[in-house]
Specification:
The protein is mainly α. The protein has one domain. Helix 1 crosses helix 3.
Length: 78
């Protein structure tokens, strides 16, 4: 395999991985948006409590972003 072919193959693989990761994150965002009532959020919090801070950090970032978005849409201040 030539260096150019190898580089192209690597780039394609990297782009495919990024697209896949983006799709997975988008789906997770949609799933987490469904926990929009106090009781659903308590259920989610109970689930997250079973995991380490490192494991749930990406989920907590998404939840925080969604919370800020809801506040802004509702006309509230931060």
């Amino acid at each position: 395999m030539s260096p150019v072919t190898s580089t192209i193959t690597t780039l394609r693989s990297t782009l495919a991985h990024r697209r896949s990761a983006h799709r997975a994150r988008t789906q997770l965002q949609r799933d987490l948006a469904g926990y929009d009532t106090p009781s659903a959020r308590r259920e989610l919090d109970a689930i997250l409590a079973r995991h380490t801070a490192e494991e749930i950090a990406p989920i907590e970032r998404i939840l925080s972003q969604q919370s800020v978005g809801r506040t802004r849409r509702a006309g509230g201040s931060l």
